Amino acid sequence: MSYTPTRSDFDHYMAPNYSPQKVIPVRGEGSHLWDQEGHEYIDFAGGIAVNSLGHCHPVLVDALKAQADKLWHLSNVYTNEPALKLAKSLVERTFADKVFMCSSGGEANEAALKLARRYAHDRFGEHKDKIISFRQSFHGRTFFTVSVGGQPKYSQGFGPVPGGILHAEFNDLDSVRALVGDDTCAIMVEPMQGEGGIVPATPEFLEGLRELCDEHQALLIFDEVQTGVGRTGKFFAYMHYGVTPDILTSAKSLGGGFPVGAMLTTDKVAPSLAIGTHGSTYGGNALASAVALAAIEHIDTPEVLEGVQKRHELFREHLESINRKYGVFREIRGMGLLIGAQMAPEYEGRAKDILPLAIEEGLMALIAGPNVLRMAPSLVIPEADIHEGMARLERAIAKLVATA
User: Fold this and answer.
1) Predicted confidence band of residue 1 (pLDDT cuts 50, 70, 90)
2) pLDDT in tens, 16-54
3) Which residues carry this modification: N6-(pyridoxal phosphate)lysine (predicted)?
4) Residues 26, 102: one domain?
């Protein structure tokens, strides 16, 4: 029976935890999408910083097709070549010695937090279990990660949250000093807060966290789920700062659209994740690993990474030009192709109102909370698409101003 789904089918069949836009994209190529009616859109959303090479990039499509004819899934009772190649490639590109593969950023962060506590337990005893995170941070939707995240709205109504979790102020080292102690097992931080409003860490802040962790024999965890794999113009954001974590998590751009996650750590820390302590049914899946390997090998090149910074400047120029005309933004910030435009006081809380207006003009964008317009496009988005997309955004902003 022929069946074409509609947006109302979402409300009928799907759990109501999302509220997607009215259009249903059915095809994508590069930084363009087309919906069921054939309307075309420029994609500044990038699947929430996932589609690092846009839609259906030939490098990723070829990797997927080649692996699809060989091997899909084994489970971790066995290993497979694509997973080992991916792990080796990640180790060779980073500070890490060991990799744990999984299927999402939430899984990667769950593994990082469990490893940090297990490591402290093994080395120092049960008392060393406190985790310090930051207000407005976001680390995933498992109950552990959402509790470590600094946005209580995501954990409210689900019962008692896990204990031993403390929250300091982002970019405020004194607030961390007030909480850290010999019972601290880890400090978890995003080098740039994503869901919290696209706020980069200062170099002094991350350097200070590293020093505090060393002083108190705690582990420093960098959540690079959103900032990693070229998003900021370096392969990982920690490389901008010269601050090396003990554990790093990755997902989103890692698979270029295929669900995959990874936790990276050192030979010093990894042994605490001993046989039977943790696992992931789909972790190291051959299809996911093959696509992720193709993605990182294409992204971690001077051409792509240097191009990210050039595109950042182009986005910023356009946003500043729009703001000079309409005065809707208070601040434009971010790194690489993770960009946030905070709304001006007179447009407080109206970032979400821009999204449907942008859809009307043929543009897909994001928000980071109610007050920040967010853009996380393909790392290789053509400059012509940036110019056209920004023209569409300006028309959407004009509509917003007209209704103010």
Assistant:
1) low
2) 999 999 999 999 999 999 999 999 999 999 999 999 999
3) 252
4) no
In a domain, 220, yes or no: yes
pLDDT tens digits along 267-297: 999 999 999 999 999 999 999 999 999 999 9
Number of domains in the chain: 2
What one-character DSSP code corresponds to residue 366? E
Q: Is 223 annotated as a binding residue?
A: yes
The answer to whether residue 161 sits within a structural domain is: yes
Residues carrying an active site annotation: 138, 223, 252
Is 41 in the same domain as 185?
Answer: no
Determine whether the annotation assigns residue 289 to a binding site: no
Rg (C-alpha) for the chain, rounded Å, is 21
Q: Identify residue 320 by its one-letter amino acid code.
A: E
Range of the domain at 91: 70-299
Segment 161-180, tens digit of pLDDT: 889 999 999 999 999 999 99
CA torsion sign for 76, 78, 79, 82 is: negative
Mean local confidence (pLDDT), 209-231: 98
Buried b (16+ CB within 10 A) or exposed e, 25-42: beebebbbbebeeeeebb
Domain at 32, CATH number: 3.90.1150.10
Q: Is 138 known to sit in a ligand binding site?
A: yes
pTM of full prediction above 0.90 = yes
**Is 281 a known ligand-binding residue?**
yes
Of 277, 299, 321, the position where a domain reaches its end is 299
72-91 as b/e: b if 16+ CB within 10 A: eeeeeeeebebbeebbebbe
- Residues 24, 80: one domain? no
CA 132 to chain centroid, in Å, comes to: 20
